[in-house]
Write a structure and sequence with these properties.
single chain; mainly alpha; two-stranded antiparallel ribbon; two-stranded antiparallel sheet
Length: 190
């Protein structure tokens, strides 16, 4: 503390000067904060944030573009397909990978085709002349199988079910044998 004058009084200005400095610093900080808020407000007005509200959906980002599928294609030319080859596909026709384009034929092919046609005719004649002399046996076996199946629905014993299963299998085998042995197709090849 300083003494002023003769009466030894303490100077009051010194604490006031310190208070003025503190107030000036506080005003300076306040002005800086105010400038920051004004700057932030201006930036917010220039570039506002985007708010997107989604209700029960998916948000996805997609792009669309034009694309082309380029396939590897090979042109096959049948220059000399007279020597044992027959052209299956027409010239210029597109064919999937591994599809036949040409077919080899043999010298006996015409004879084989004729034999196949003759067998087809015999089969058609046999089917037309088919008699139902074995249909009674088959119907009897079918009825027995059906009876066993109805009885099987009420059974709970595993051993009896297994026994019924064996009986049904044997009757089915008998039915197949009767139909196979007496069928007209069997007589064609014997």
């Amino acid at each position: 503390m300083k003494k002023i004058g003769k009466d030894n009084r303490v100077a009051v200005n010194e604490p006031r000067q310190k208070n003025k400095k503190k107030v000036a610093v506080a005003y300076g900080i306040g002005v800086l904060i105010l400038i920051y808020f004004v700057y932030s407000l201006i930036q917010l007005i220039k570039q506002p944030t985007d708010v997107i509200t989604i209700a029960n959906g998916n948000l996805s980002e997609e792009e669309s573009a034009v694309g082309y599928v380029i396939r590897e294609e090979t042109v096959i030319r049948g220059d000399n397909y007279k020597n044992g080859m027959v052209q299956i596909k027409a010239e210029g026709e597109r064919v999937a990978k591994d599809d036949p384009v040409f077919r080899y034929y043999s010298n006996n092919e015409e004879n084989l085709v004729k034999k196949i046609q003759e067998l087809d005719i015999k089969i058609q004649e046999a089917m037309a002349n088919e008699t139902n002399f074995f249909s009674n046996d088959i119907k009897l076996l079918e009825n027995q199988i059906q009876e066993k199946l109805v009885e099987l629905e009420t059974l709970n014993d595993i051993q009896k079910i297994a026994q019924y299963k064996k009986e049904i299998n044997t009757k089915i085998t008998k039915k197949a044998k009767v139909a196979g042995e007496l069928s007209p197709a069997r007589f064609l090849y014997s």
